[in-house]
Amino acid sequence: MLDPRRVRDHFQAVRDGLAKRGPGPLEILNYYVQADDTWRKSLQEVEQLLAKRNALTPKGKPTSEQLAALKSLSDEIKLKQDELAPLEYDATQAALTLPNVPHESVPIGQNEDQNVEVRRVGDIPTFTFTPKAHEEVGGALDLFDFERAAKITGARFVIYKNWGAKVERALINFMLDFHSREHGYSEIMPPALVNTASLLGTGQLPKFEEDQFQISQTDFWLSPTAEVQVTNMLRDEIIPEDSLPLQFAAYAPCFRKEAGSYGRDMTGLIRHHQFNKVELVHFSHPDHSMATLERLLGHAEAILKALGLPYRVVTLCAGDMGFSAAKTYDIEVWFPAQGKYREISSCSNFLDFQARRAMIRFRAKDGGKVQYLHTLNGSGLAVGRTFAALLENFQKADGSVAVPSVLIPYLGVDTLR
User: What is the distance between the alpha carbons of residues 2 and 239, in angstroms, rounded to a whole number?
Assistant: First the structure.
């Protein structure tokens, strides 16, 4: 959520920033400003009427004329207060659907074609044969079963089996071990269900309700990412400045409807309704959050370097960024069969956007001012996509797949065959 004072006092700067995202946010901004102004004027009227009633209230026994005047004023106040609640609701809902303002360093653009490449890391593998898609490689090795998963649940689910199940589990353990050991993250294994307040806090609701799975007749939702659980661990809390920065690595199954994306990636492991992911979440002092974003990006990259997978880093343009983000880097891993890079991690700085929604604050040293902290998160990494990239990049002519050296201690073999 944007700071209301910032919107009121620096409206043109906010408008110019949101304009980088495209016309949609400007329509929401205009509606919000009107709704907020209407609510504030109505609130001011109520406060003036309350003050008038206090001034008219006699100190001694009131006369019948005074009682009649007070009753008439009280009725008017009640009427205005009844009108106030829906006006406040409209302003609040508009504020909740207003996206974050892009950071000044974010490139201007409206789609992924205008993202800016930062660097490429690793050598793209060469093959003496035509590389196969990961679902074909894994299918031949009996690593997963899409047909039986569809029978159990439906399309876009998978059963990992045999070495497939072991590799998926090994990747999760390796990522958690690596981030906690090498980067000092505190490990978290949160619930898979979250409540409405949690999704509101991180920005999935109300705007992206169609992408979420809700448990019927409850306030529970299947979590779309562990970012939701870990960020909301500190919801409605004020923490001491000395405890910052905080950083957590969390494994959780993730669930998304992927509404509107049908027809894309209908086969393989790339775009499922349920998938595993290790998430990295940071709580940062506002003065340090942009530097923290660079460090977070490096932590996610380190997994790909350790696995020996080629990748590139791009800065997302304003029009391609997520709703809550002020700046985002995408890490894209190479897929030989497709001949292109595909997203495997997004690392974002939300500044105080989520903290305002979730009321996550810190108190300055020596009992000083209470301020909103900054939140950041990134995938470290999406496990299924990592598995898919391993199968494609390390496949051999005989159909086997070489195991990266860092996974051998987890699997006990150096080749899947």
Answer: 21
